[in-house]
């Protein structure tokens, strides 16, 4: 049996799901005040258009096309002046994201929320990863237009990766919120702890999760959140993989952790929490579970953690 705490190395990129497949070359050291204008002037430039938690897509059967050239983006009224530079494809094609009014689209375009896009598999992994990057940046700029030091309106800089205040010279940088998401396993590695929040779809159980607080390590955040939410004391913690999560700019940090106690005491954040055997989990993953319980969708890192644990025994 694999030891999760000695063999918990990050999975191969092909195994990652959801928003973790970004392949753009960011070239962060080359960003400057002319990065966005130069990128928009490139006839190969491609843009993602987002707004209000949704992306503008061109449906094509069971998939969709999220890309627009500069002229098309301008025709749709996208704010290309406020575009952010995501990076470059291997051939040097610049890729950007811009805000668009998703309520006023022609009939051949649809505005679809980010969660539905990944659950329905509308985009391939690289496009979904780029969407996570663009959505997070556009959301941050939308909510950080004014300097937090003096209140003056700030301006975008460095291709969208900084805002500068002309009044006090304050500099502000994009926000990423770290969240630990963990699968607690019994000491004998035969059972895992899953919980459900009131807002989950009926019957779905998932890994516990919570924000990392200032001055806190990942390991201690795992221990604290598990204790707070389920009353379980945690010993060993092992990092496994991470996943961008554009709701609005979160980084999910996936871990395995060893439960030293087994008596569950849930707090107000959970509706229920239970121990599940590996056999019970495999049955559901194989489609033989009936209405016993449901797993998180494949695009979520919780699904990766549970599936890898179920296959390891």
TrEMBL record:
GO molecular function, one term: NADH pyrophosphatase activity
Known EC number: 3.6.1.22
Domain of life of the organism encoding this protein: Eukaryota
PROSITE patterns, sorted: NUDIX, NUDIX_BOX
GO biological process, any: NAD+ catabolic process
Top enzyme class: hydrolase
SUPFAM superfamilies found in the cross-reference section: Nudix
Keyword Glycoprotein in record: no
NCBIfam families: PRK00241.1
Protein's recorded name: NAD(+) diphosphatase
Record organism: Effrenium voratum
């Amino acid at each position: 049996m694999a030891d999760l705490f000695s063999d918990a190395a990050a999975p191969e990129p092909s195994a990652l799901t959801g928003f973790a497949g970004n392949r753009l070359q960011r070239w962060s050291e080359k960003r400057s005040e002319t990065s966005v204008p130069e990128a928009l002037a490139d006839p190969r430039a491609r843009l993602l258009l987002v707004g209000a938690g949704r992306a503008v897509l061109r449906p094509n059967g069971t998939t969709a096309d999220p890309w627009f050239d500069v002229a098309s983006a301008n025709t749709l009224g996208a704010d290309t002046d406020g575009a952010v530079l995501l990076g470059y494809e291997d051939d040097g094609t610049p890729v950007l994201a811009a805000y668009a009014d998703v309520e006023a689209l022609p009939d051949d375009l649809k505005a679809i929320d980010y969660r539905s896009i990944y659950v329905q598999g509308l985009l391939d992994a690289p496009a979904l990863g780029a969407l996570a990057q663009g959505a997070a940046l556009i959301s941050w700029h939308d909510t950080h237009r004014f300097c937090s030091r003096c209140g003056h309106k700030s301006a975008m800089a460095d291709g969208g990766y900084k805002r500068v205040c002309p009044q006090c010279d304050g500099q502000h940088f994009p926000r990423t919120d770290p969240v630990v998401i963990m699968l607690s396993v019994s000491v004998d590695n035969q059972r895992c702890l899953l919980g459900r929040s009131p807002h989950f779809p009926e019957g779905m159980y998932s890994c516990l999760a919570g924000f990392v607080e200032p001055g806190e390590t990942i390991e201690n955040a795992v221990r604290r959140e598990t204790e707070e939410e389920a009353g379980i004391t945690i010993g060993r913690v092992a990092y496994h993989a991470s996943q961008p999560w554009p709701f609005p700019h979160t980084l999910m940090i996936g871990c395995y952790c060893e439960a030293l106690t087994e008596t569950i005491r849930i707090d107000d954040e959970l509706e229920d929490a239970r121990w599940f055997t590996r056999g019970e989990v495999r049955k559901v993953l194989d489609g033989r579970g009936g209405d016993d319980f449901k797993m998180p969708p494949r695009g979520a890192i919780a699904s990766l953690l549970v599936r890898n644990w179920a296959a390891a025994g």
